[in-house]
Write a structure and sequence with these properties.
alpha/beta, 3 domains, 8-stranded mixed sheet, globular
Length: 371
């Protein structure tokens, strides 16, 4: 839905951005998600998708430019209540170095290429120091964009695209209503790479549950091997209560994989990544082992060793770490050697009467806080 006739109501920001864009200026180009059917996601449910008029996005850029100019000149910025969002966003961006811009919300590339080029040109003209402009996109959308238009967007300044692959398994993609298949994921990823745009693919260990854990690992690795994205970003499955997949869990239609099985799944996935040079990134607190990071193929052995070290622990040690990680005490597997952090985790386990048989289910409940 394109709201070209709506009245400009001031600077806007959407609800999310990738962790790697924490220092970016957030510019809202679209509102919410045009697909909005994925059963693992509860973010945009009940929200209507719309495309903001290009003129409104350009006004947002002008508003930020005004604030930045005053900050650079040391001039007090005269702002009213309607200008608060742009002022605080611009000020934070200025203080973070003004190096990157992230275009919101869930699928900016759904707009017309010429409209996106106009936005990119305005960013480049007003902020020539910007090094990176990035956006989320759906594989289904990218697959429909011509190679010529993707090359134009690259030349216009779009440096990186974030795509939620989640899984390379057609079985799982259908079950979670992703609206895309493995073949389209591969086609879209290859098109982005061909255009010379950096590509981040997000994968979701645990998404196949117990039944399709192996399927998820093997088929996702297969898709990634055919794409060779610049980044493979790990997002372990968590299930907020409002999601469709959580309802499936309650109704016995989905069997949630615990942390131990998910780590085994990640081992299988890494073992099956071959012939690519992607950088694996674990940049979200929801991941159990944040140390599992590195560039393939050189760091593959190291990453596998982290997973093996966890799996070699006895069950009590695993439980201490899992609960410690889920309450934010354990920053990595090395913190099992910290007496203070171990004690904090053990005190929580005792106080909350967490039993070995229920520890992983308890941890899954704790994970909801991070989504």
């Amino acid at each position: 839905m394109n709201n070209r006739n709506e009245r400009y109501s001031g600077f806007e920001q959407g609800p999310i951005r990738p962790p790697s864009e924490s220092d970016s200026l957030l510019l809202r180009v679209t509102r919410n998600c045009p697909w909005n059917q994925c059963t693992f996601c509860g973010l945009y449910k009940g929200q209507t998708f719309s495309i903001r008029p290009v003129e409104d996005v350009l006004k947002d850029i002008d508003s930020v430019k005004s604030v930045i100019s005053d900050l650079q000149n040391g001039t007090p910025h005269d702002r009213d209540a309607a200008d608060q969002w742009s002022y605080h966003s611009a000020k934070a961006w200025f203080e973070n170095g003004m190096k990157s811009v992230f275009l919101q919300d869930a699928n900016t590339l759904v707009i017309k290429p010429d409209d996106l080029l106009a936005i990119l040109a305005s960013i480049r003209e007003n902020f020539p120091e910007v090094e990176r402009i990035t956006s989320y996109a759906r594989s289904q959308t990218v697959a429909r964009i011509s190679d010529k238009d993707l090359a134009r967007l690259k030349d216009g300044g779009l440096n990186r695209i974030h795509i939620g692959m989640e899984s390379g398994s057609d079985i799982i993609l259908k079950r979670i209503k992703k609206g895309v298949d493995k073949e389209t994921h591969i086609k879209a990823g290859q098109k982005v790479k061909k255009a010379g745009i950096e590509l981040s693919e997000y994968i979701m260990p645990g998404l196949g549950g117990v039944e399709y854990s192996t399927e998820n690992a093997v088929e996702t690795a297969s898709a990634l091997n055919q794409i060779d994205p610049d980044f493979i970003r790990i997002r372990t499955l968590a299930l907020p209560d409002q999601t469709g997949l959580a309802a499936d869990l309650r109704n016995g239609l989905f069997s949630r994989a615990g942390d131990i099985l998910i780590i085994q799944e990640m081992m299988l996935l890494l073992e099956n990544l071959e012939g690519i040079t992607s950088t694996v990134v674990s940049d979200h607190i929801i991941n159990l082992l944040p140390e599992v990071e590195g560039t393939l193929p050189d760091d593959k052995k190291y990453m596998l060793s982290i997973l093996k070290n966890f799996l070699s622990l006895d069950y009590v040690e695993k439980m201490i770490y899992i609960i410690g990680r889920r309450i934010g005490v354990m920053r990595g597997l090395y913190d099992l050697n910290s007496d203070t952090r171990r004690r904090h985790a053990l005190d929580f386990i005792i106080q909350n009467q967490v039993e070995p048989a229920t520890a992983e289910a308890y941890a899954a409940e704790l994970m909801k806080r991070f989504i």
